[in-house]
Design a protein that fits this description.
eight-stranded parallel barrel; globular; RNA/ubiquinone_mod_enzymes; alpha/beta; 27 strands
């Protein structure tokens, strides 16, 4: 097993669109949550006021759950003061780490908080990860397109914490190296406002202008699912397992977190690893990752470059296949019997090149009446993209997380004292005076005391054991006294948990470490004076301005990616594909494709608009 020397606890990291979703993630077993700040987050639509972030910190702290805030967009010079103000405000709110892309935050003198290098800093090589770690980052978040072999190579080069995406949407471009959105609009992915140009339909043209593929989503890839590979990632030394989805709703987050909680716990147990937070979660439902949003699942390039990872027909969530149409009639169709649909389910299918769908109005056996009359051919595969019964279950259940507690009773001539000790060894005590004399029935009173102390009620605790030593005399205590004793003890225990200092790993900065790639180019995304100063201090003088400062991107490689259109379409030159230039076209926008077969990478170069 790799990385035996590292004794890090393991973290399941969940996205949180807002405070409600954060609480749902915590209840279902997340060890940490990440959420957007008021501004400067890579999901502009998922920002949160500082007051809400503080409330999440308060809800997370009793369980030892960590809270991270994403300030991971590029900052312009005239925004530096506001960015620093927001950073300091969320630090004061008690967050454990800031996830950042812009090196300006390294120059702000921020204290008492970890800095995590966002995946947007393009973390694909041992040299880059080592540089960031020695520069002062507590953690590095790896690029989503890395293989297991590449992750292992990075771990061998550093002992810093490594975070890895395991579920959710994949950016087909190398993170932080995509400017495609800005070629079609003023919206920038590096500024938190990506237009998702990669999900659009394109024509594929050859060098003569002939259309090889028409209106296909040639850059849209499936969603990541590494739930079956968490053991490999543990052995490779991954510290944090990250779920993508800061725009997703609470139902998606609850289901996905509960699913990965189970997968991680099963993989950690035989390896002697432990989770980084406390408590046991009962989600209140049976998680099923296939029943919430998905564009189709892929392990992407985890085992190396391969084809079959795209969704050329649609970039939308199609869900799980429920069968094929076997018969049709006026207003209905029948399925061939894989799964049973429910009224209210959402269904979809491909009609030619178009995805169409509706809701289910009525079901009788295998016969389905859609909500709107539409022609569906025999043999058409039907997918369920909204499972009403499952979502009703999610909405109706109560997810609960509790911390195990052991209660020890001690009887003295004057009082009955109870010492509560939780699963992490945190303790608190409460006592009740023995003012009522001895109980007439010592055995029955003893059983009553044990029974009442075992009732944790609607607290974050579950009393798993009450130890009451055998004694001849047991004091008589009224029910109200016992309840007050238990309530006081558990309240003190909760206060003791909250009062513990939050553990943070803030490394010393090595001012002598040098930027490993010479002079930073435009892809290093330097857009302000503080970021420039950071690179100059580390040997990167003369750096080019970041491409987000440039208005005209014609001739620029606006996407760099290990995903290859040739490979995906069976046109790989290494496998006998016919050579020649290839182009992508969307409306009037044209992009030239360049292929680096030695590195097995593709570049998308913006060539301008045909109508300009």
């Amino acid at each position: 097993m790799e990385n035996k020397a590292r004794q890090h606890t393991i973290e399941l990291l969940a996205p949180a669109r807002d405070a409600e979703v954060a609480r749902a993630a915590i209840a279902c077993g997340a060890d940490a949550v990440y959420m957007g700040g008021p501004r400067f987050g890579a999901r502009q639509a998922a920002g949160n006021p500082v007051e809400d972030i503080a409330r999440v910190v308060a809800a997370a702290r009793p369980f030892g759950v960590r809270v991270y805030v994403t300030l991971n967009t590029l900052v312009f010079d005239d925004e530096l003061a506001e960015a620093e103000r927001i950073a300091r405000e969320v630090i004061d709110a008690g967050v454990d780490a800031l996830i950042v892309q812009d090196m300006a935050y390294m120059e702000m003198g921020l204290q008492g908080v970890e800095l995590h290098a966002s995946t947007q800093t393009y973390n694909v090589s041992p040299e880059k990860v080592d540089f960031l770690a020695r520069s002062g980052f507590s953690r590095v978040i790896l690029e989503r397109n890395l293989s297991l072999a590449e992750i292992r190579a990075i771990r061998r080069a550093t002992d810093t914490e490594l975070e890895c995406f395991v579920n959710g949407a994949i950016c087909v471009s190398c993170s932080g190296r995509c400017y495609m959105s800005r070629t079609m609009s003023f919206r920038s992915g590096n500024r938190g406002d990506c237009s998702q140009a990669c999900r659009l339909a394109y024509d594929l043209l050859d060098g003569e202008g002939r259309v090889l593929r028409s209106g296909k989503h040639l850059l849209s890839v499936r969603d990541m699912d590494l739930s079956g590979r968490v053991g490999d990632l543990l052995d490779a030394g991954i510290t944090s397992f990250k779920i993508e989805g800061r725009l997703k709703d609470a139902a998606y987050v609850r289901n996905t977190v509960a699913w990965y909680r189970r997968c991680l716990d099963e993989a950690m147990a035989p390896r002697g690893l432990s989770r980084s937070s406390a408590g046991v979660s009962d989600p209140g439902f049976e998680p099923d990752i296939a029943r919430t949003f998905s564009r189709g699942r892929t392990e992407y390039f985890f085992d190396g470059r391969r084809r079959g990872v795209s969704t050329p027909d649609t970039p939308k969530a199609v869900g799980r296949s429920v069968g094929r149409v076997s018969r049709t009639g006026k207003g209905w169709f029948e399925l061939d019997g894989r799964e049973t649909l429910t009224p209210g389910d959402g269904i979809c299918w491909l009609a030619g090149d178009e995805l169409t769908g509706t809701n289910v109005n009525r079901v009788e056996g295998r016969r389905v009446w859609p909500n709107r009359e539409t022609a569906v051919r025999v043999g058409t595969e039907i997918f369920r993209n909204y499972d009403k019964r499952f979502y009703d279950t999610l909405e109706g259940c109560r997810s609960r997380r509790t911390i195990g507690v052991r209660a020890e009773v001690e009887v003295t001539p004057t009082e009955l004292r109870v010492r509560f000790t939780d699963e992490e060894g945190v303790t608190a005590s409460a006592a009740c005076p023995c003012a009522n004399g001895a109980a007439r029935d010592a055995r029955r009173m003893r059983e009553t005391i044990i029974g009442q102390l075992a009732k944790a009620g609607d607290t974050i605790f579950q009393v798993v054991e009450v130890h009451f030593p055998e004694t001849e005399e047991v004091p008589f205590l009224r029910m109200g006294e016992l309840n007050a004793l238990r309530r006081e003890g558990l309240e003190r225990l909760a206060e003791a948990r909250i009062g513990r200092p939050a553990p943070r790993r803030i490394p010393e900065r090595d001012e002598t470490v040098r930027y490993p790639y010479g002079t930073p180019d435009g892809y290093e995304n330097i857009t302000n004076r503080l970021a420039r100063r950071f690179y100059e201090r580390h040997g990167g003088a003369g750096a080019a301005a970041g491409y987000d400062l440039q208005h005209d991107l014609r001739g620029v490689s606006v996407m760099r990616t290990p995903y290859c259109v040739r490979r995906e379409l069976g046109m790989c030159l290494r496998q006998g594909g016919v050579g020649g230039p290839l182009w992508l076209r969307h409306g009037g926008f044209r992009y030239r494709l360049e292929f680096d077969c030695d590195q097995c990478r593709m570049r998308v170069v913006y060539e301008g608009r045909e109508d300009k």
